[in-house]
Amino acid sequence: MGEDRPGIVATVSGVLARFHANIIKTRASTVFGNLFVIIMVVDTSHAVIGTDALINILKRSCDEIGMALAVEKGESYRCGKKVIVFDLDGTLIDQEVIEELAKEAGVYDEVRRITALAMEGKADFRESLEARVRLLKGMPVSCMANVKSKIRIIPGAVELVRRLKEAGFKIGIVTGGFDFVADYVGKVIGADYVYSNRLLTKDGVLTGEVVGSMVGPEAKLNAIMSIAECERVGLDSCVAVGDGANDLFMIERVGLGIGFNAKMVVREKAPAVANTDDMKVLLALIGCIDLKKDIVGRI
Amino acid sequence: MPDKYFVVIVVGPDRSGLITEVTSVIADFGYNIEDMDQVVMHDIFILSLLVNISQDLRSLEKMRSKLEYRCHELGLEVTFYYTGGKK
After folding, report:
1. B86 interfaces chain A, CB cutoff of 8 Å
2. In a domain, A38, yes or no
């Protein structure tokens, strides 16, 4: 799915044809006025390269023409998705909260350097989180309100969640970031579950300590598993959306994992990728657009 | 002026590469496909396309004959329906 323009079908089907993958069924249409969605069922049994290699080439070709792509194997597509969880920083909001706090505390450059390493998967998440929070020690609590007032939620996120809820989804936020922002964003978008960490404060200033169990990639998956348990569904019915290396663990283990405006390491490994400003694109990847209905609705 | 469209129906024996062959002709002329359905039934390939033709009505006949020629080469039957505006 992506912004409509001539040649999209030719490009996507061209990649499949080049490797002798056969398209069995297609449904495609323009939705929301300017977005084009294609759903294809592809038989790869006669393909001249492996499925994973084909998916990678398809991903790159789609990225080049600004299309988001999701690939689901076998029966997975038929499995109704019921739970969706989002990473917070860089996914639902276009800031890294800890960097915004660091700006307030005047330690931006040091924090920025550690965050970048962690996001690319080059540093241990727990150590880097603790190291960054230590740098915030002594910062007045009022700064947290300043940061909260600057938070920008990604365009389309509120509408995306509204439509997902209409389709019966439960919504979760799973973040290694902090509760004062996560709870606020959760309230704005209408999340059912929020998992985050807490910055400790004493006498009106930050102590430089962080508490909470949302540390490391496994923590996000554990959070999804407990949401799934509450909702009585399996991991196959869960969708995970994230951008950083610490999201990859959950992205690779749920029914549908989506890299949203993701770092390179995530783009390469996520089964679905969307590099777009408009979060509504995710609706098509999740299979939540009833094409016929939407078209009839437009007339 | 409202956009103008035509519907293209392509039918014939299935093999890989048909969609890209047909849609490339349309893309080469810069026309946009706004709706598409395709299915394979008992090895017969069936494709329907809704093509927005309003941007360049002059190249239309040229594109149509190119498409007929390409479909003939591929062993496919092709039919065009001019529908006027979008229904």
Report:
1. yes
2. yes
